[in-house]
Structures are given as C-alpha cells and as structure tokens.
Amino acid sequence: MTKTRTLVKWFGTFVATCAVALACSLGFSSTAYAETESVSWNVTYSAEKQMVSDYNQESANQALSHMQPGDSFTMKVNLRNLSDTSTDWYMTSEAIKTLEEGASASGGAYTYTLKYNGNEIYSSNTVGGDNSQGFKEISGVTGKWFYVATLGSGDTGAVTIEMSLDGETQDNAYMNTLGKLNVAFAVEDSTGTTAGQPVPDPDDNGNGDGAGSTLPKTMDQVLMVLYIVGIVAALVCTIVSLRSLRKIRKGSDA
C-alpha cells in the first residue's frame, strides 16, 4: 500500500512538473525565439522586352502565417535583364514613403532597411537628423520612381526590404504599413545619359523638357494587392491570438 501511494505521489509530481514545463514553454515561446520570415520572387525583363514575374501568393502566405511581434520579415526581389540591351531599373518611391510614414506614426514600432545586392540604400536607423529630407535623401529619386541599378544584358541584381517588429508593441501600425506597402519596379533601355535620370518626355510643344519618361510598370503592382491581403490576414490573426493569451494569463493570475 505504501509503495502504491509513493508511486502515485511520484507520478503526480512528474505530471505536475511536465505541466509547469509545458506552461512555461507556451508562455515564453512567443518572445524567446524570434524568427525571420521571408518571401522572394523574380522579376525578369525578357528578350522580347516584356516584364515577367513569378510571384506566388501561396508561398508568401505560408511564409507569413507564423509571423508575430518580435520577428523579422525579409522581402527579396531578384531582378534579371535578358534583353540584348543595357537597362536602367527603378523602384516606386511609394514603398519607401509608406515605410517611412508608418515608422514615424508608430513611434518606432518597427525598423526597416532597403538594400540592393547587400548594400544599404536606405534605413530607418541611419537616415535622419535635423536636416533629414526622408526618402528624398536616396540617390537618384525622380518623383514617383528612384533609380536602383543599371543591368547589362544577362546581368542580375537583388532588392531586399528587411523589417524588424517590436516584440512588446501593442500598436498595429506595422500591420497597417504592410497593408499599404506597394512594391513595383520599372525598367527602360539605357541611353547613355547619367544613370538614374530618365529621358525627359517631350512637352506639348515638342520640347524635351517634359515631366519625365513614363516607365513601364511590372505586373508586381497587381500581384502585391494579393500579397498584402495575406500579410494583413496573418498579422490580424497573430494580434488576436496574443491578446487572447494575455487575457488568459491575467485571468489565471487573478
């Protein structure tokens, strides 16, 4: 009888210990192990001088489904020029403006960095100060677009946007930012002029001092609409889950 009681007591202690360990694991896993979610796709300027993208919404949604505050997010776009001419590549300025305004409105709920081939173009950590002009400080900004690189025939490059979310923030500003983030690229044949300066369009009088060339957009602007829906849905689920966990913890503490 004594052995049975001892065995039952030992088993009860073992179960209780496991329960505590599991509770600790569930309680701290969301903050102790920050992860980096990523998604990438290719944008190609074909031999026929058409913009082609292989963006896959399902892959993007899968990568973002486990994202939560404290994690990092990396978006990479591989650029390739398969045409027989050298080309100038541009990225929409709206993407940087959205990141910039969102970070400012959230009081720093997230940080971000824009890179080309690993070299930093713009960062929320390095650009600023009393004389800061924001995204206009990027070299080659031309209104709606800013110059990224010149790719010769057969050349490749990669644009990366990296975001780090504040693990303690209750603000969903970063979610709103990702929901508005519009990433689009444009390309035009190089003309031998200064890199980053599109050839001016003629004005109504035929003079070459118009507002600037109209760059052909890729299909990414359309695809990003589907992409951001997946981001918003994933982050909404994350926020709801975290708030529910906090309520459960507060209830158990009471």
Structural class: alpha+beta
**Beta strands, count:** 10
Question: Sheet bearing the most strands, described?
Answer: 6 strands, mixed
Percentage of β-strand residues: 25-35%
Q: What's the overall geometry?
A: elongated
Strand order of the largest sheet: 2-1-3-9-5-6
End-to-end separation:
39 Å
How many separate domains?
1
Mean pLDDT across the residues is: 64
Quaternary structure annotation: single chain
Task: Count every helix, treating DSSP H or I runs of 4 or more residues as helices.
Answer: 5
What's the alpha carbon Rg, rounded to whole Å?
A: 25 Å
Query: Which segments are poorly predicted (pLDDT under 50) over 5 or more consecutive residues?
Result: 2-32, 126-141, 194-214, 216-223
List SSEs in N-to-C order: HEEHEEHEEEEEHEH
**Into which percent range does the helicity of residues fall?**
25-40%
Name some characteristics of this structure.
254 residues, alpha+beta, 4-stranded antiparallel sheet, 5 helices, 37% helix, elongated
Describe the 3D structure.
The protein has one domain (34-253). It has helices at 2-32, 57-64, 93-105, 173-180, 220-253, and strands spanning 36-45, 51-53, 72-81, 87-92, 110-116, 119-123, 141-142, 145-151, 156-165, 185-189. The radius of gyration is 25 Å and the shape is elongated. A hairpin with a 2-residue loop joins strand 5 and strand 6. The chain has five helices and ten strands, in the order H-E-E-H-E-E-H-E-E-E-E-E-H-E-H. A six-stranded mixed beta sheet has the order 2-1-3-9-5-6. With 254 residues, the protein is α+β, with helices and mostly antiparallel strands. The model is unreliable at 2-32, 126-141, 194-214 and 216-223 (pLDDT under 50).
